[in-house]
Write a structure and sequence with these properties.
heterotrimer; A alpha+beta (79); B alpha/beta (363); C alpha+beta (318); A: 79 residues; SH3 type barrels; five-stranded antiparallel β-sheet; 1 helix; 5 strands; elongated; C: 318 residues; alpha+beta; 60s Ribosomal Protein L30, Chain: A; Phosphoribosyl-aminoimidazole Synthetase, Chain A, domain 2; seven-stranded mixed β-sheet; four-stranded mixed β-sheet; 8 helices; 13 strands
Amino acid sequence: MCLAIPMRVISIAGHLAQVEEAGVKREARIDLVEGVAVGDYVIVHAGVAIERLDPHEAQETLRLFSEMLSGTPEPATEP
Amino acid sequence: MERLSQLRNPDLLRRLAGAVRAMAVPACTLMEVCGTHTVAIARHGLRQALPAGVRLISGPGCPVCVTPQDQIDHFIALGGIDDVTLATFGDMLRVPGSQCSLEQARAAGADVRLVYSPMDAVTLADHLPARQVVFFGIGFETTAPAVALALTEATQRGLRNFSVLCAHKLIPPAMSALLDSDLNVDGFLCPGHVSVIIGSDAYRPIARRGKPCVVAGFEPADILRAVQLLLSQIAEGRAEVESEYSRAVRPQGNERARALLERVFQVCDARWRGIGAIPGSGLALADEFIDFDAARRFTVDLPPAEEPSGCRCGDVLRGLIDPPECPLFGVACTPAAPVGACMVSSEGACQAHYRYRGSEVTL
Amino acid sequence: MADLIAEVFAARLGTGDPPGDDAAQLDAAGRLAFTTDAFVVDPIFFPGGDIGRLAICGTVNDLATAGAKPLAISAGFILEEGLPIADLERIVGSMAQTAQEAGVRVITGDTKVVPRGKADRLYICTSGVGQIAEGVTISGANARPGDVVLVSGPVGDHGLAVLSQREGFQFESDIISDCAPLAEMVQDLLAAVPGVHVLRDPTRGGLATALNEIALQSQVEIEISESMVPVQPSVAAACELLGLDPLYAANEGKMVAIVQPEESMAALAVLRAHTHGADAAVIGAVAGRSQGRVLLQTALGSHRILGRHVGEQMPRIC
């Protein structure tokens, strides 16, 4: 229902941005996201950016998963 | 984000799957309400990570599956009008109406164009001034803002040859309606990108009814982690809204998108295929944009909508049965020769089950 | 019409053998492979190739799946009235170049022009004849439990390259069709690994469909590992954007090879030594006898069915 992938903003012209992921480039409307800057990652659905990926939260998510990988116990895990 | 590819580390996934499988939880039923989750779960075999006694069922999260037959017929019928060009997402191409599908209508001469973005449909209208371009507005809260943008764009360009057949639907009212019905579900995996728009706070009323809600992203790691959080809540007797997808979802959602939705659409009652009428669960065009309503711009003769007999899509969509429990599944109803919407749609629970788990053997 | 044939075709493909006759003549001994194909790709020019190159590669590769060295190709053209001569010249030139690359000649052909609207620019129909060396028996029915499954490189390039040009899905990328003639690579493989059981080119319907066909023909279960199937990052990204699965996207320069386990490393080395097989990989194995099924092991170690696809993949937003 909601296919959308994070893509990096490589240029902006008004309401339109060129976004890119692994060499695949498309145009996306960015009017729904405030303060998009070149270098930001936005989540693109049907040609429209619906949100900016929060780098701090993304980092936290990665940190959490990296802890899981290293075996740090998670409170939710029961034997 | 290159670093997000770390989420696909097979060691991480195996460890996460192992942790989930080892959880001590009472027998319970979880429901996901997003077609993209349906596909991701089936594609990655995520059910095999569930602890014994935990069931994960699909709900009405597939927009194609819940679009009523008569709305599909309506869109196809518009294609029979001279000078009309239909523009639609690829998802709709093979969905059968009462008499034929869009694909078959195209083969018979209708001008049907596939688009990736509703903006492409507006551009099409701009380039084809002699044609009337009608776009099929299906999808939930993730997609409606894109359609809303397309309508504001069409207004700005002064296009008189663009219109939308509006069939958008809203997820939280459907979740409430399911809880009002005879559904037995212990927690919801909430749709990541719908939640980007509406915000995780939107599920508070569901949590207040005693059902834990966890918003999940779409990577296998996201889904497994969200299941882990959901099962923890159930094991601990909590019913809260949590978000696993914090890198994209805010409690209040995307306020610009929501403001745009409020400007371009108005909430209305809507019929969900297989479920029936759910109050306040649909979107219609607001007065300011009513001229773009294809249902008003054109008159068509519609055949009476015929629901296929024996089809139990409604029960599948409401989570009452699993696809193989429908007598037609895998026998009269297959992806090659589908009967109901759940088998037609690439996000339908029946097609996902058939394609990734087989017609007989449950993997 | 005679002028057209002379100027465009003969100048690039030669005049047939013997020249001017309606039927070409060949000398051949031993077992022959014979294939026929029709090419209707849209658009006719795409990143990495065109319908002409595709026609030669497709025919040569079909012959290669029988382990055959291509001897000769015939080509019939159905041209829509109004097709620009420059386009035809470019396509026929591309065929000539590809034929030379593949070490095969187009020795006979035919051309018809149909009224505007009765064909989509042009269609090409080919047949190909190839020589199978003594002792070579390759067939989709020959897969045996324990055999190793290899693919000669990353999948999905051609399908996505073509799709990127279609109306409604335009996206820029560096994805180009992998369209390539593989006869030489296959001959190298057979020289080093005489006991190849199955060769298949995963064209329409992609790797998943090809594996399903083999599983059915051989009545076996094939198991592959998703993380072992090579996919270029750009193809993976485009598939995610459009909701497609690279395992079902077409390939025009890839070969699936199923070989005895003791020969699998040798096979891999030979493929990798060839330009068109540089990224070859082992992707799975033949698990056992069955009604014909393909299983995919996912990244987290679970299994699911990899079915034969139903119809053309449609890009999704949902």
